[in-house]
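Students often ask why we bother encoding 3D structure as a string. The short answer is that it lets us treat folding as translation between two languages. Here is a chain of 131 residues written in the first language.
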Amino acid sequence: MGIGPILRTVSRFCHTADQAITHRHVPKLRGLEGKDLHRELAGHIVRIAHKAWTVLQNPDDGCVRFEHDHYLKIWALTQPKLDADYLLLNEAQDTDPSSRRSSSPNATTPNSSWSATPPRPSATGAAPQTS
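And here it is in the second language, the structure alphabet:
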């Protein structure tokens, strides 16, 4: 099987707003599409993915390659509070749920609204009024 499914599991976890790695982060593998086979495999992969995630949280000591998604997820898991009126986010439409939750105006409220589209100026060119 190799380490690929384990690293993909960690990567899929990093792109969610979830707090822990679970079986739902384990990718489906060709030839093991059946629910029972996937459930059995996921049990093993999740256990090893937890170990890989633990290693990744100490990137200087680990043997797993530390990537951009890893440090963003580590940061997101701290539930940061951004004290700002505005947050400019380049390529916001591509923001994953983990980063979106952290950059939300009400990050502690899971269903808070979040928009990647700035308000449009009025027809007169005046700045939009904010409430």
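Translate back mentally: The longest helix spans residues 35-56. Keep this in mind for the problem set.
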